[in-house]
Specification:
homodimer; Tetracycline Repressor, domain 2; flat; DNA-binding; HTH_TetR (chains A, B); Repressor_TetR_C (chains A, B); TetR/AcrR family transcriptional regulator (chains A, B)
Amino acid sequence: MAKKVVQDAERRRRRRTKQGLVLSHALIVETALRLLREHGPQGLTARRLGLALGADPSTVYRYFDGMDDLILALADELMGRAVAGWETTGDWRRDLRDLGLRIHATYLAHPQAAVLTAARVSGRSQEIAADEAILGLLRGAGFPDPAAVRIYHAFIDQALAFAALDAASLTLPEPALRADRTIWRATYARLPERTHPNITAVADLLAARMNSSAYPAALDLMLASAAAELAAAPRDGGNEVVQSV
Amino acid sequence: MAKKVVQDAERRRRRRTKQGLVLSHALIVETALRLLREHGPQGLTARRLGLALGADPSTVYRYFDGMDDLILALADELMGRAVAGWETTGDWRRDLRDLGLRIHATYLAHPQAAVLTAARVSGRSQEIAADEAILGLLRGAGFPDPAAVRIYHAFIDQALAFAALDAASLTLPEPALRADRTIWRATYARLPERTHPNITAVADLLAARMNSSAYPAALDLMLASAAAELAAAPRDGGNEVVQSV
DNA sequence: CACCTTATGCCAACAGGGTTGACGTTATTC
DNA sequence: GAATAACGTCAACCCTGTTGGCATAAGGTG
């Protein structure tokens, strides 16, 4: 198995090898992310990855336990990048807002990586570190455990969900995910006005709107709701619907 | 092409054919959804679909232009089911809340169909009908076009995003998407307390929370925010962040 | 130094994926 | 009855992830 290989190879610096190749987890992840960004999900295959690395496709399996494992590593890497440079001020609301925007921005910088948002939850290092930070922040702010967990989940879910959908709007991946502006305009503007008056009337608006993000506003709403909950009752309030505004 | 085939075959009732097979768009979609629900994304392949239909895999291509086209049809079918039975009362906020919950529930009834949420936007009949209804509702309520489009998008995005993530929490699909309770508990509870005090302290809560949905609360927040915007200013307010509560 | 174990890379091969084209049969239409 | 479209099968193609065997390099130990 590649488990022990991981630990040993990680702490060692190799000079050169048979064909002069020097692969590593970091290099493979970096290359995979590049392929994903430049050529979309279709571009990230075992064979293409091997080609981009100048190595045989099967070599990747010396470092990762299959393609699924690699994908989890990619998601973990992105989470690590999102958290990198994040500094907590002690103001949980401000800190979470900052982190949320960082996660969102990181995924938007790798639009094709929207696939990865479904691959969360793995017990990998970067993710767990981020989770620890978030939970610690919430508990430190005075949220009881159930509330902290609830907010923690809502926070992560929201960030990843919006990132995935925003990214899907920005990119032009495989036909099944096609959602770019051109498609929208072409699809909606071509509808007969008689049968679809509402859509045709706002076809251009629909197309133009595909580029903007609704996440910051939604994030602020969620944080405001959490703050109101904290201010109202120090004790936990269960899972009931929060009616505000 | 299958385009003309579609129209002609749809309006006709065929008694029997060569081997006694009577395929149709509806039957194929129904079977594909069943495969997806029972065996997950891995279970929905051209070959398995052919097997389940008792037909040759290539036969599907007489009805759909490739697997992508079929997947879009599945998403369209689900949207149609979600909207079926939906009755508008004229109260846009109440109606949208109802529709949102319907969409959410429909996708939760087909957990494995979370993949389909990424396949939105296609110009297919059921979807366009739903879009028309939503946009008509918002414009009728007095929202100017830009605001209506913005809310329309936020509404759909939110419903699909939460459905996808909630469904991912409920199911146990391929390794890359693994996110079930067992995994959560096993993953997080096994962490050393010394290095991960926060996570280990709430490990059970984390696992238990995977089954509940945060969508209704988020939906209410969004609708409340939209209502506040409508009450405050009849004219459109652009894309600025809404600070409420 | 020799020696053995581990790490690392390549190669060939397998099962299974989507998709296509030719072909035959059936159903419909004129 | 003849022509045409629809429908289903079959064999084949190229792609995918993945594996086992083999060769070489590296690292540690005598």
